[in-house]
Amino acid sequence: MGHPLHRRGCPTAAGELAPAPAGSPLDWYRHSRRVLLDTLDTVDPDAPCYTFSRVDTSVRFWHRRQLHETLVHLWDLRSATDPAAPAPAEVSAEVCADGIDEFLDVVVGRARAEARTDLGGVLRLEATDADCSWVLGPDWELLPTHPPSGATATLTATVADLSLVVWNRRPAAPAGTVASSGDYRVIERFRRAPLR
Predict the structure, then answer these.
(1) 169 near 144, Cβ under 8 Å?
(2) How far apart, in whole angstroms, are the C-alpha atoms of residue 96 and residue 92?
(3) Which of 15, 84, 190, 194 has the greatest number of CB atoms lying within 10 Å of its CB?
(4) Per-residue pLDDT tens over the stretch 136-174
(5) Nearest 5°: phi and psi at 73?
(6) Cα dihedral: 155, 159, 165, 170 (round 10)
(7) CB of 195 within 8 A of CB of 111?
(8) Could you say which DSSP state residue 146 is in?
(9) By residue range, what is the domain housing residue 73?
(10) What does pTM read for this prediction?
(11) How many domains does the structure of the chain reveal?
(12) What is d(CA 78, CA 57) in angstroms, rounded to the nearest whole number?
């Protein structure tokens, strides 16, 4: 059968999809979850494996990806009954900042050019509870944190709320959670880009 991360059904090339689950989807999910967690617990994190990153092709990629995927979907579950649910407090600002880094490195980094629609200006994401910020040029390229021309638009929030904005979970400027300034059209282009 081969290495667990190279099983049949794990995509290894574009267009190769997992087979439909046999039996109960819940049973299939529980079994698949157990296989994944057992594999991540036992395989060397530095071992090479399939990823969809252009930079990291190690098992470690999947540790990071599963952490951030779980956090986003934890908020999804909580917001099903409370649309104003706070960002998960179980994790540090450092972990949330890494989630934003992952989005910009992996998702934006592998996106087709047409998905990275022109933002029409420079967008700054500024954390209020951590010493971090991200500045995106009109072409989605990361810029120095203090670009010479300044930002066309800025979103300011806790790093956890910024991570939810990045994944289109949190609206871009609800009162009291995420503050916006500058040209709101840049923020809307960021939010509507078909990357997620």
Answers:
(1) no
(2) 7
(3) 190
(4) 999 999 998 877 778 999 999 999 999 999 999 987 765
(5) -75, -25
(6) -110
(7) yes
(8) S
(9) 24-192
(10) 0.83
(11) 1
(12) 32
